[in-house]
Specification:
Elements lengths: L3 E3 L27 E10 L2 E5 L2 E5 L3 E6 L5 E6 L2 E6 L2 E5 L1 E6 L5 E4 L2 E4 L1 E7 L2 E9 H13 L7 H17 L11 E2 L15 H9 L3 E5 L2 E2 L4 E2 L9 H4 L29 E7 H14 L6 H4 E6 L10 E6 L2 E6 L2 H5 L13 E8 L2 E10 L7 E2 H9 L4 H8 L4 E4 L2
Length: about 400
């Protein structure tokens, strides 16, 4: 049975319906610790604007206040960040941009963010870091990850809020050497600031304020993906070192044998390449994975090698006249990139090869699911919520043996 415990400690360490415009994020007694989110990385330029805002230097204090709401340009200049426009030209190693009204927002490249923005030089360009209280960050994450949902799916949003909160706290400082905690992309969690907030996402965050999934009193490695296809994946099958008691594969079907995620638009999918298309793609993707590029020019066959315990592809063989290349794990999805871009939706697929004599003409795959499949299945959570399960039941189904604790 799930146990809900209150820890009296402070933290140290699509089938959718339209909704009205999002209102203010409902935050109860605490908005949680601040999270530093890299929302723009290695950019050549950007535009800052929106509501009246102040420009500060961390050491000097306020440099200027922009009251007109005009747009300012920002770009890397040597070792400095250069900001210009509205009669101002400022160059510093770091700049802090924050709204004059603390409840307001700052616009970066047309996208509004709550909290403040820190601008700095990094690598080959400009980095913009959104410094925002955790609970306000989560409102944007839940909306971005789950999309606009219906009221009967609220429990799925609550489950996502808790998983995303757990992920953020567990991974706080992951990108410390670059000055931020998390990336504002699917490399960590999808995040689009105020743009993706919605009344239901806000309500889910507020209703679960401070709650995280724990194992032996610590936030878990809270993996999640879009669509598991009826069975989640073993943690170690997708991620090296992810051997956790709560990350074992689980059956994700209802009493009739129907997968909870069967309504996902990626429950079934197809992809295909002509031989020419695949050769061009493999030249890029094999190099990106540090794999031999010879198969891009002499590919003769593609065969499934081994499977994981859940029957997903563990290894894929690219066979050529002069040898073969083995692709393993999630690299399979990146190497077989679809012609339209991105990565293949999952490693749960079959392969069909078309030839004329010995000449390879075409490769087609028929697949199921979307994502690595480890941990919580987002469309499965939606299906469970529609069936009346609450967020406790949903989370314990995907992370068996865990607890839910309130940290603040």
């Amino acid at each position: 049975m799930r146990r809900l415990r209150t820890a009296l400690v402070l933290l140290l360490a699509s089938c959718v319906s339209p909704e009205p415009e999002p209102g203010p994020v409902p935050v109860a007694d605490s908005a949680g610790p601040d999270i530093r989110v890299g929302v723009l990385v290695d950019a050549r330029q950007a535009t800052i604007g929106g509501e009246p805002f102040a420009i500060d230097d961390p050491e000097e204090g306020n440099l200027r206040t922009i009251t007109s709401g005009a747009a300012l340009s920002v770009a890397p200049r040597g070792a400095m960040v250069s900001l210009s426009g509205s009669g101002a030209r400022i160059e510093r190693h770091r700049l802090i941009i924050h709204p004059v009204d603390s409840t307001g927002s700052i616009t970066l490249n047309g996208r509004a963010y709550r909290g403040s923005l820190e601008l700095r030089r990094d690598g080959v360009g400009l980095v913009a870091i959104n410094v925002v209280p955790l609970e306000r960050y989560l409102a944007g994450v839940v909306g971005a990850e789950m999309g606009l949902r219906r009221p009967e799916e609220l429990e799925a949003l609550k489950a996502q809020a808790i998983v995303s909160r757990t992920y953020a706290l567990r991974n706080q400082g992951r990108w410390k050497e670059r000055g931020f905690d998390l990336l504002g992309s699917v490399s960590d969690q999808a995040y689009a600031g105020q743009l993706t907030e919605s009344p239901l996402a806000n309500a889910a965050v507020a209703a679960t304020r401070g709650e995280v999934v724990t194992w032996e009193g610590q936030p878990i490695d809270a993996f999640f993906s879009s669509t598991c296809g009826g069975r989640t994946e073993e943690g170690v099958a997708a991620f090296a070192g992810a051997s956790r008691p709560y990350l074992h594969a689980v059956d994700d079907r209802d009493a009739t044998g129907t997968p909870w995620c069967a309504t996902s638009p990626r429950y079934h999918w197809k992809a295909g390449w002509t031989a020419g298309q695949l050769a061009l793609i493999l030249r890029k993707t094999l190099a990106a994975e540090n794999l031999p590029g010879g198969r891009a020019s002499d590919l003769r066959d593609i065969r499934i090698g081994t499977h994981t315990a859940t029957d997903r592809i563990a290894t894929l063989e690219l066979i050529g006249r002069n040898g073969r290349t083995t692709v393993s794990g999630q690299a399979v999805r990146r190497v077989l990139a679809p012609p339209e871009g991105g990565i293949l939706w999952s490693t749960d697929f079959t392969v069909h090869v078309t030839r004329t004599g010995t000449k390879l003409e075409r490769i087609d795959v028929d697949g199921r699911g979307n994502g690595h499949g480890v941990g919580m299945c987002q469309w499965g959570a939606i299906g469970r919520a529609r069936a009346g399960q609450d967020y406790h039941q949903i989370l314990i189904s995907y992370f068996p043996g865990t607890d839910i604790q309130r940290l603040y």
